[in-house]
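Single-chain item
Fold in token form
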Amino acid sequence: MEQKSTNIKDSFEEEINLRQLFEQYAYYWKWFILSILVILSLALVYLRYSQKSYITTAKILLKDEKSASAGELAGIAELSNSLGFGGTRSAFVTDQIEVLSSRRLMRKVVDQHHLNIVYSLKGKIRSSEVLQTEMPFVIVPQQNQDTTKLNLQVKLAGEDKLNVTNLFNGEKTIASFDKIFEIGSHKLQIKRTKKNLPDNGVTYLINIIPTNWAIDASLKSISITPSKELQSYIVNFSMITSTRKKAELILNSLIDVYNADLTNDKMRMTRATSDFINKRLLLISKDLSGADEEAAEFKSANSMVDMATEAGVFLNTASDNDKKVLEYKTQLQLVDHMNDYLKKQEVGKLLPSNIGLQDMSIVSTIDGYNKLVLERDDLLKTASEQNPAVIALNENIQESSINIRSALQNYQRVTKLALGSIQQKSNEIRTRISSIPNQEQGFKKISRQQQIVESLYLLLLQKREESEVRAAATPDNLKIIDAAYEIGQPVAPKKSMVLLGALVLGFLLPLIILYLKFLLDNKIHSRKDIEDIVKIPVLGEIPTAEDTIVHLNDRSSLAEAFRILRTNMSFMFGADNKEASRVIFVTSTISGEGKSFVTTNLAQILSMSGKKVLLIGADIRSPKVLDYLGLSHLQHTNVGITQFLINPDMDVDNIIIKKPGNYDFDVVYSGYIAPNPAELLMNGHFDDVIKYAREHYDYILVDTAPVSLVTDTLLIAHNADLTLYVSRVNYLDKRLLQVPRELYVDGKLKNLAAVVNDVDFARGYGYGYGYGYGYGDKGKKKTGLAKVWLDLKDRLNIK
């Protein structure tokens, strides 16, 4: 049962503490509302005038011609990628993203659109950036833009005049359209782009930065990421900027430049093949012309018309051999041409591919060599010659070049052996046709040479056409899935986040300030501070009031507080000898806590109950009793306690002021301020005053001096039946509560009890329960959240 009671008590105290903490902050609810309104207003102003940022996105699909596209190899590649064993596609996409993020491509975009020159339209509060295409004029630096750095203000001053100001140093000049002018060490030219110019009041800001700065700024604002799918070739672009059209321009231009760069790489091999074929055609066309002239001269000299019919019978057998001889010689000539080209061409340059050689191993080796060259050139775009990968590729190219030469020699040697064999057979046939005239044999020799040159010429023509068709039919390197487009809503600042942050900040700001205030505040604020530290009973809480004295029939919170104090005092006296007079000392720790205020009002309340009351002003150092009663004039016509202590032969009744003014109690004021008050109180004559008062009054209220400043109160404390210790909230330092604690522990003040003064009941539970029951409440009314809380308690019947 006892344990249950203890739990209920702990729960109640915790509820009280939480409610006290809440009401302690809720008292300042107006500051919370004001702070929230001010911060929200600032947030709205910020949202209205801050530079908004928008996100622009684009999406492309890359095409990897090197990846397996058909057959079992494609299936194996797909399976390995799906199982996580292969990374060909992801590596390809990563490499291309590095190319897209390169400074080389971004420099082309910056140079193409002059992004190192930023144009802005000056506003009243902030400036807004505009594109160069939207400007009525453009500015053209006349020197290297890699180092130019200027911040200009340009204002139209007429049809052909402009006021130009260098914002770095304030230098001003007047410029004209299409004319070069100097400002500082820079030469500039302003070109007009539109016929209709805006009003003269329009001001433009032009910021010229080095090209490298513009490249870095553009690259930092662009995010290029691959698709989340491992096997996907999709690349996503996003760019956050305050100018929507500028972001679209940059992203679209970057994609176009990248596509043109890939196309240019592919065209390099095609152009190398075409150049080789064109050069060989020039030489072979001369050989063909010479063979045609030689055949015509031979026929004319030997009167030959058409010997094919006559020699057909004899040459049928030799025709097949002649075809093979022609084929072998053609191959040998191609090999010779290729060897000549290799001797003149440096290692590491592209070689012509598929020029008619029948040995597929040579064609395959040349294709492999060209792929290595292209791979090395592509790597050199982002790496140097000392890169290990570049060095390894150069070694592979060198080795491949040696293999090509070796393969050509082997092929030439094999072809010559085959040619020799077939020529031997042809010689055997010639012996069989020896009857054919020598003229026909000579013509055949010339004709055969003519056919060899002609077939080679036709072959090269065919290869050139194939190369041109292949170049014209080059497919796109990428597919644009989504061109650059901006999302309508700004990404920064986010209105919801800013308003939420402002709301939270508006609430936290006064909360933090109040927390620091309460943390650094050492003043007492409630009866709980006294109960926790001094551990003495608190008989009453006196509210803050405008009136300094309780009036007759007063029903205010101040009067009710003193009535409660009067009732609680009766419990401190005990049940013995209820008719005996009571001596009540009123003291405090320091001056200004309201002990005189409490003493005078307590005397008024006691006298209203029909008791005979004597009020003694024993604070002979700083007397205030008559001041609180509004009877200051009586100190000039009456003697006080000081005069009696000096002259104890005086009758005590002579120092008592009988019911002064409208008050129904008697007063003994302190008298003149003596130079030795402690010595006067020590002479024992003050006891005579108390003895006399006990015989003639029911209550004797003694207003004494503060105990922490002087010893006056302790010298006469033995006369008290009850000592009321007044502590003023928001005034007394908590550390000074150790003074009454020591006095209570040591027993220096008899029957010690506390009175809390100047309590503001509008602050809530932690500062008092409040008064004003009934009518005629002249005290401080409850307002704000405290009143709402009390009304809610009344409606819900919360105790």
